[in-house]
Here is the input.
Amino acid sequence: MPSKTPGAWPVDEPLDLDAIEARAEAEYGAQYMRIQAERARWHHVFASLRQYLTEQPNPRAVRAALRRIHTELDRLGDDVIADMTRTETNQ
Here is the structure.
C-alpha cells in the first residue's frame, strides 16, 4: 500500500508547469491558450468571492457582503465603460 494518497503534500516529483504550458501552446495554439487563461481567471475570481462569502459569520452578513460586492462591480463597470468611451472619442 502506498504511503501517500493521491494529491498528498509534499509531492515527490512536482510538475513543470512552464513546460506543460509551452507544450500546450505549441499543440493547441495561442488562441486556445488565451481562452484557457480567461477561463482560469474567471474561475479564480469567483472562487475568491465564494471564499470571502463563506468567511462571513451569518447569512445576514453574507447578504450585506453581496450588496457591497454588487455595488463595487457596478462602479467598476461604469469606470471601464467611461474609459472605453473616452478612448473611442480620442481616436
Summary: The CA atoms of residues 52 and 65 lie 9 Å apart. The chain has a mean pLDDT of 87. The chain has two domains: 18-55, 58-91. The first helix runs from residue 17 to 28.
